[in-house]
Specification:
Low-confidence stretches: none
Oligomer: single chain
Structural class: mainly alpha
Helix content: 55-70%
CATH superfamily: Winged helix-like DNA-binding domain superfamily/Winged helix DNA-binding domain
Distance between the termini: 32 Å
Order of helices and strands: HHHH
Mean pLDDT: 88
Number of helices: 4
Shape: extended
Radius of gyration: 18 Å
Number of strands: 0
Number of domains: 1
């Protein structure tokens, strides 16, 4: 490699199918443990891809309130995943 050449960053390793399946089960369990309103916030945002404004419309709350609800639900979900052994990446 010449002095001025840059090296391509290494591609991240392919996800381990077993680990991915275990994480999927842990995520399902963590979601099931959320309050129904928190679960709805997560599902509307991340499974259905709704904007915060659209979530607010669906739930009958202002956009800022929907944003706050999603934030709190994500925090609770992260805490549940961490407690089950799945720490978020740093």
């Amino acid at each position: 490699m010449s002095a001025g050449a840059t090296r391509e960053p290494a591609a991240p390793p392919a996800p381990d199918p077993v680990e991915r399946a275990e994480l999927g089960r842990a995520l399902e369990m963590a979601l099931a443990g959320l309050r129904p309103d928190q679960r709805a916030d997560i599902v509307l945002r991340y499974e259905h891809g709704l904007s915060f404004g659209d979530i607010g419309t669906v739930l009958g709350v202002p956009e800022a309130t929907a944003r706050s609800h999603v934030h709190r639900a994500r925090k609770e979900l992260a805490e549940r995943l961490t407690a089950s052994g799945w720490a978020p990446p740093r």
